[in-house]
Design brief:
- The structure holds 2 protein chains of 2 kinds.
- Chain A is an alpha/beta fold.
- Chain A is built from 10 helices and 12 strands.
- In chain A, helix 8 links the parallel strand 8 (232-235) and strand 9.
- The longest helix of chain A is centred in the N-terminal third of the chain and has 21 residues, at 2-22.
- Chain A is elongated.
- By secondary structure, chain B is an all-alpha fold.
- Chain B has a domain at 55-268.
- Chain B has helices at residues 2-38, 45-53, 56-70, 78-96, 98-122, 128-150, 165-172, 175-178, 190-208, 210-220, 222-227, 232-257, 270-281, 292-311, 316-340; strands at residues 155-156, 260-261.
- The chains are: A alpha/beta, B mainly alpha.
- Chains A and B meet through helix 2, strand 7, helix 7, helix 8 and helix 9 of A and helix 2, strand 2, helix 14 and helix 15 of B.
Chain lengths: 331, 341
C-alpha cells in the first residue's frame, strides 16, 4: 500500500516537472524589482476579484470587464468567492506577477495585509464599487471607482421630497440586514429627507441575501399594519421592489397608487418603471465603473499618475420620463 | 412524607413530559396571544390571508425534508436544487408554455432527488454526517449550474411574452376566484389549498402504505432494517426523490411569489428553515420517528414567528436571533425526547 502511494507521488512529481519544463516561462518568478517598466501599448494583465458571482450585479460587472478589456489592451481574469477566496486570489495575482487587481471585497478590512503585499510587489490596486473605509487613512489602494450608496440614498430621498412637497408617509424594505450597501442606502435616504415632511412609518431589513420573496412577506405585513397610510415604499433593490409590487397587487391595491422606489437599475427595475409599477430606480452603472477602472489602470501602467484617486460614478435616476435617456441594462 | 415527595415528583415529571411533547403548540398559542394583545391587527382577515399565503414554498420543502429526516438522513442540497429547478422552469415558460414547463420542473426535481439518493447509496453513506457533506457539495454544484445556465442574471417574469395564469394564481389567487359564493373564500390563498392536497397525499402515504412505514424503520436503525428485509437502498433513493418533487413545487411557488427569480439567491436558507420546521415540529433528528402533520406545526411556528415579530416591530437583527434560539431549543427538545426514548 505504502509503495503504491509512493509510486503515485513520484509519478505526480514527474508529470509536474515535465509540465514545468515544457512551459514557456521559467518556473521561478523573477523578483518584482527586476521587472522592466512596461512600455505604453503593452498588454496589461490583471484580475477582477469580486464577491459571490451569484450576485447578478457582480456577474454583470465581470462580463463588462471581459467585454471592455480589449479597448484598453488588457487581459482580465475573473474570480469570485468569500473572504478567504479574495485573499487567495490576491496571493495568486502576486505569484503570477499580474499588473493590476480590481477588487470588490467581501470584507474590506480583512484584505489589508494581502493588498499591502500586492502593492509592495508593484501591482496596481483598484477598489471596485467598495469605497475605502474612512477610518483607515492609509488604506492600500491606488484608485477607487464606484457609486456611493449613501449618495444614492440621499438622491432618492431628495427626489421623493420634490414629489411630495406637502409631506407623505413611507415604509422601507431594506436589503440584507447588516450589509454595508443596505446600511448606507438606509442612512442616505434619511439624510435626503431630513428637512422634509416625509414621515417614516416603519422599516425592516430582509434576513436572507436580498431575497425578493422575503421583501414581499415584509410588505404584506406592512400593508396589514398601515394599509392606506403608506404613500411611499423605499426598497433597497429592484428585485425586492418586485416582491413589494406583488404584495401590493395581491392586496388588491393598484401599484401606481403607491410611490415605489427601487435601487440598482437592472433590467427588472427598468421593466417595472416602464410598466408604471415602480416610480424610480436608482441605477448604478457597472459599465462606467468597469470602464473607469480599466482607464485608470492603463494610465498607471503606462507610467502616468492618477490625480483623483476617488472616482465617483454618478447614479442614474431612472423614471418613466428619463428611462429612454439610458441604455437598457443587460443584467 | 416520602410518599408526598414521590407524588410531587411524579406530577412534576408529568407536567414536564406534557410541556416537552406539546411545546410547539404552547409556543404557537403564546405567540398568538401576545401578538394579538400588542397588535390587534394581527387578528384581522387580511393578516389571516397573509399568514396562509406565507406558508408558500417553505411548507412544501419542509414536507419533503420530513421524509429525509425520518429516514435518518439530511439534505442540504435544497438551495442549489431550488435555484436550478426555478431557473430551468422559468426559462421554458415562453418556449413550451407554462404548464409543460412546470411539469418539466417537477420531473427535474424528482430526477435531482433520485440522483442525490443514488449518490449517497453508491458512496455508502448511511449516516447523517456523510449525507450532510455530500448534499452540501451537491447544492454548490446545482447552484453553480443554475448560474452558468442564466449567466448569473435574474429571470424577470414580467418580461415574458406569454401570460402565466397558473403562476399568477399561485402568486395572489384565492379560492374565491374559483368559488365566488362566500367572501370567506377570498381569504384562502390558492397555494394553501395546493399545500393541503399534498399534505393529505403524503400523510396517507406515510401512515397507510408499507413503503411509507418502511421509512421509519430505515431511519430507526438502518442495519436492522436491512437485515429485516427492508430494501433500505431503494427507500433512500425514494425519500430523496419525494423530497426532490416537493422541492420542485416549492421552487415553483417561490418564483411565483415575486416577479423575479435570481439564481442561488432564490433558494437561500431553505435548507435551514426546512430542517428547523421539521425538528421544531417534533420529528426526531436521529430518524425513525416523525410525521408530516408535526412538520405543519413547525412550519406554522416559523411563519407565525416572522409575522408576529414584524407586526410587533421587532428589529430585523433581533428576529434572526430569535430564529436561531428556536432552532437551538428544538434541538435540545429533540435530544430530551431521544433520551427518554
Amino acid at each position: 500500500m505504502k509503495k503504491r502511494i509512493l509510486a503515485i507521488l513520484v509519478a505526480l512529481v514527474l508529470v509536474f516537472a515535465f509540465i514545468a519544463a515544457c512551459a514557456d516561462e521559467p518556473a521561478t518568478e523573477a523578483p518584482a524589482t527586476d521587472v522592466e517598466t512596461p512600455a505604453a501599448g503593452d498588454t496589461m494583465r490583471g484580475i477582477f476579484i469580486t464577491q459571490d458571482l451569484s450576485n447578478a450585479s457582480q456577474a454583470f460587472s465581470a462580463s463588462e470587464f471581459e467585454r471592455l478589456m480589449g479597448d484598453f489592451d488588457a487581459e482580465v481574469i475573473i474570480a469570485g468567492g468569500d473572504v478567504a477566496d479574495n485573499i487567495a486570489n490576491i496571493e495568486r495575482a502576486i505569484a503570477e506577477n499580474l499588473d493590476f487587481i480590481f477588487i470588490n471585497p467581501n470584507d474590506i478590512l480583512a484584505i489589508i495585509p494581502a493588498l499591502e503585499r500586492a502593492r509592495e510587489e508593484g501591482i496596481i490596486v483598484g477598489l471596485f464599487s467598495s469605497q475605502p473605509p474612512e477610518d483607515v487613512p492609509d488604506y492600500p489602494f491606488d484608485f477607487f471607482a464606484g457609486s456611493d450608496d449613501v449618495l444614492g440614498g440621499i438622491q432618492a430621498g431628495e427626489f421623493v421630497m420634490t414629489q411630495f412637497p406637502d409631506g407623505a408617509n413611507f415604509v422601507e424594505v431594506g436589503g440584507q440586514a447588516g450589509h454595508i450597501a443596505a446600511v448606507s442606502r438606509h442612512d442616505g435616504f434619511r439624510q435626503g429627507i431630513d428637512t422634509s415632511l416625509i414621515i417614516e412609518l416603519d422599516y425592516r431589513f430582509v434576513t436572507g441575501p436580498w431575497e425578493a420573496a422575503e421583501a414581499r412577506s415584509i410588505m404584506e405585513d406592512f400593508l396589514v399594519m398601515y394599509g392606506d397610510e403608506i404613500d411611499i415604499v423605499w426598497t433597497h433593490w429592484d428585485n425586492g421592489a418586485s416582491g413589494v409590487i406583488e404584495a401590493v397587487l395581491a392586496a388588491g391595491i393598484d401599484p401606481t397608487d403607491i410611490f415605489i422606489i427601487g435601487y440598482d437599475g437592472n433590467s427588472v427595475g427598468y421593466q417595472q418603471v416602464l410598466d408604471g409599477y415602480q416610480a424610480l430606480s436608482v441605477g448604478q452603472s457597472f459599465t462606467n465603473m468597469a470602464s473607469e477602472s480599466l482607464r485608470m489602470a492603463r494610465v498607471m501602467f503606462d507610467g502616468g499618475t492618477i490625480t483623483e484617486r476617488l472616482n465617483w460614478v454618478p447614479v442614474d435616476m431612472v423614471t418613466i420620463d428619463s428611462i429612454h435617456d439610458f441604455p437598457w441594462p443587460e443584467w | 412524607m416520602i410518599k408526598q415527595e414521590t407524588l410531587e415528583r411524579k406530577t412534576f415529571y408529568k407536567v414536564g413530559d406534557f410541556v416537552l411533547e406539546y411545546l410547539v403548540i404552547i409556543m404557537i398559542l403564546a405567540l398568538v396571544i401576545v401578538t394579538a394583545i400588542v397588535e390587534p391587527r394581527f387578528l384581522t382577515a387580511a393578516n389571516f390571508r397573509n399568514v396562509m399565503g406565507q406558508f408558500g414554498p417553505l411548507s412544501f420543502t419542509a414536507l419533503g425534508m420530513t421524509f429525509i429526516i425520518m429516514g435518518g438522513f439530511i439534505d442540504l442540497s435544497l438551495p442549489g436544487m431550488i435555484s436550478l429547478i426555478a431557473m430551468i422552469t422559468l426559462s421554458l415558460f415562453d418556449i413550451i408554455g407554462e404548464i409543460p414547463a412546470m411539469m418539466v420542473g417537477m420531473m427535474l426535481g424528482i430526477a435531482l432527488g433520485s440522483l442525490n439518493g443514488t449518490i449517497l447509496v453508491k458512496f455508502g453513506a448511511t449516516t447523517q454526517a456523510k449525507a450532510l457533506f455530500i448534499t452540501f457539495g451537491l447544492s454548490q454544484l446545482y447552484g453553480a449550474l443554475s448560474q452558468l445556465y442564466t449567466g448569473g442574471s435574474p429571470i424577470n417574469r414580467g418580461a415574458f411574452e406569454h401570460p402565466a395564469p397558473l403562476t399568477q394564481a399561485l402568486s395572489s389567487g384565492t379560492v374565491g376566484d374559483l368559488f365566488p359564493f362566500y367572501s370567506f373564500f377570498n381569504y384562502i390563498p390558492f397555494t394553501f389549498i395546493v399545500f393541503l392536497v399534498f399534505l393529505a397525499i403524503l400523510f396517507i402515504f406515510q401512515k397507510k402504505t408499507r413503503l411509507g412505514r418502511s421509512i421509519n424503520y430505515t431511519g430507526g436503525n438502518f442495519v436492522a432494517a436491512e437485515l429485516g428485509g427492508i430494501p433500505t437502498k431503494r427507500i433512500t433513493v425514494m425519500i430523496y426523490a419525494i423530497c426532490g418533487l416537493m422541492v420542485a413545487i416549492g421552487a415553483i411557488v417561490a418564483f411565483s411569489r415575486a416577479n423575479v427569480a435570481a439564481p442561488v439567491v432564490i433558494g437561500a436558507n431553505f435548507e435551514r428553515d426546512s430542517i428547523m420546521a421539521v425538528v421544531v415540529g417534533g420529528t426526531s433528528l436521529a430518524g425513525g420517528r416523525g410525521s408530516v402533520l408535526r412538520t405543519v406545526l413547525g412550519v406554522s411556528l416559523i411563519i407565525l414567528l416572522s409575522n408576529c415579530m414584524n407586526l410587533m416591530r421587532i428589529d430585523s437583527h433581533l428576529q434572526e436571533t430569535f430564529r436561531g434560539a428556536v432552532l437551538v431549543v428544538a434541538i435540545w427538545l429533540d435530544h430530551r425526547r431521544h433520551a427518554k426514548g
